[in-house]
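Worked Example 4.2. Consider the chain below.
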Amino acid sequence: MKSRKEHSTNSINEKYWKEHCGITQILSLIGGRWKINILVYLLNEKKLRYNELKKRLVGVSERMLIAKLKELESDGLINRIVYQEVPPKVEYELTERGKSLEDILNRMEKWGEANLPVK
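Applying the procedure from the previous section yields the following structure tokens:
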């Protein structure tokens, strides 16, 4: 993926809003198609192996899952635990910072369920 130029208007605006707006900050951390799902699975199940996450996230590619896990780890929301064994075993769990999203995620879920489109 091509990144924006550091001094482009979009980059300057994005940086400003992430630093000055709490909503923009949280949406940059948990936004997108897969991050919230990963966080909720880890919130409910405490620790999951890579393959367990992959099975639950129907339709996610390996490349996308790896990218989102790296982003969540980089942002301090999840821990990646590597066990030194053969075959390699890797588990993911929420950090304290990630666990602090529990109330927000639960409220978002309740609001979303209450506002599902009527069929």
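The beta strands are 47-49, 78-83, 89-94. The two ends are 37 Å apart (CA to CA). Compare this with Example 4.1 before moving on.
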